[in-house]
Amino acid sequence: MVNHSRLGEFDLIREYMRPLTLAASGAALLNDDAAVLPTKDGHHLVVTMDTLLSDIHFFENTPPHLIAAKSLRVNISDLASMGADPAYYTLSLSLPSDGEFKYDADWLSRFSQGLAIEQELYDITLVGGDTVSTPGPLSITITAFGWVKTGQAIMRSGATVGDLVYVSGTIGDAWLGLSALRGNFLELKPPSLEFVTDSYHRPQPRLDLGQQLFGVANSAIDISDGLVQDLGHICRASKVSATIKTCNIPLSGPACMLVADNSQLINSLISGGDDYELLFTVPKKSDKTISNIAKKLDLPLSQIGLIGPSNLNHSVTIHDEEGTEIDLTSAGYQHF
Amino acid sequence: MVNHSRLGEFDLIREYMRPLTLAASGAALLNDDAAVLPTKDGHHLVVTMDTLLSDIHFFENTPPHLIAAKSLRVNISDLASMGADPAYYTLSLSLPSDGEFKYDADWLSRFSQGLAIEQELYDITLVGGDTVSTPGPLSITITAFGWVKTGQAIMRSGATVGDLVYVSGTIGDAWLGLSALRGNFLELKPPSLEFVTDSYHRPQPRLDLGQQLFGVANSAIDISDGLVQDLGHICRASKVSATIKTCNIPLSGPACMLVADNSQLINSLISGGDDYELLFTVPKKSDKTISNIAKKLDLPLSQIGLIGPSNLNHSVTIHDEEGTEIDLTSAGYQHF
Predict the structure, then answer these.
(1) Residue A3: what are its φ and ψ, rounded to 5°?
(2) Which domains, ranges and CATH numbers included, belong to chain B?
């Protein structure tokens, strides 16, 4: 049932992808059924997989190098949250088979060039994959592998009552970027507009931070679903609850400006997702260590809340500036 | 842009998949961003990835446990062709989001039960993955990992002039099964019909054979595209050519019967694909070793041809029973 008429095209795709495998001799230039890769003594293998679909996870008209960047970075961010060091990835491309073939040689060339840039940035190498023709939308599945020193992976499940909740960078910029791409927040001036859309297109996996957090953080996660939802994931895995204060949420200049005009916007910023910042919990005694890491990495690390005892829903309580509890569910935020 | 209204459903999916991870403590019950897995001393990691789409790689109405079987087995077959031992896999499910949700709890339950059976059979464990909602067809991407003793992987690129070409099992049954599912070969009686459709639905990865071939075979590949096409892959990777004789192709009872009625059918059987038998080349002196392996494994291993010197296209020449060369390309077989 394979669409054999497209196999010639798939050979073409392989030609574009082949140069990306040069750093991994075991990938045998995508010639074999599988890649054969050396392991790393004293390390565990860390594996993550994410699928991105056109018009669900990125806009169809997104430049190919940015689709490549996002597809790879959301996976690298998962590795970062575990404290792992990226090594390899496999890529499955499902290319739309509709008449007008917009995923042509030019698109593939720009997509593979985008991957090449990311590989250089994050020291990760393509080692295999698959390409199929689909009547559905463009779909990109990446499985990424990294190494973490044995016993040094940071899990979601280690949060402890009394832990301080920290987050890296600023929150909500990617959601603003997505909203701007949809035609909202037209009051944003060009540099701010570029900043938020770039935050959406090119998340910054916090690899250095993840690797510094071993022995310091009790739990960590990268923010993909939204700060509140992902803190909920930590709470459920760790069987604890959490309280955060919106006034402690770190915001970028553009986000600050918009929240100053509309204070309700903070609710969207903390539940919009796609931040790919690290959210982590540390024992109270480690707050000095965290400020040292922040200085060393030149990366803001903000304390936004506290871990409390288990409650029925392992839930996250949010307080606004006046200390009033915010109920995001009633505001239509179903996704946590 | 995530379809948040479906996240509840995805939690449900996770509930079905969670029990499949029990054998891998590092998968942390699908709770974490990534799985943390032990490596194996003295072994290399073998990685393969395949995507299967509804109505391209399987019929939409295929029972879910058979979709599970095929999706996993085509990947395990890639591991088998390298001589690797299966260990883990990740799974990305893209579930159609159309109104009538046929991929409901019942479907998911039967799909995950199918995976559970395969896991038991092949000693492989789910360690992570992703689930997305798609406007396209059901799509299943699996990345499978195995271990091979360092330096003992068998590649496509080792075929040497003078090598004998061997194939395991029988060829063309899966293609007959696919054709039967499309309503052809109605002359096949129930037991034969079941045999060929089962060959299509549940390929038998030749793991034991792959592991026996180290030190014996110079090259190996599993037959997914078709015997002739996959032999072409070996030729191109090894910079050699090959000649095979159709009278040496091992056929099952049902295939024999059909070829007796229509001798042209052999061309479809050797180019139809989906066999997932191993195709491998060995030096002439090893023919005795191969018969011993065949006896030991109780698996037919048939010599079907010879490796010759490189020619321009690294091509495969096919001779029929009378020794006349068959030109499959002119017969409309574009896919090699």
Answers:
(1) -80, 85
(2) 4-149 (3.30.1330.10), 156-331 (3.90.650.10)
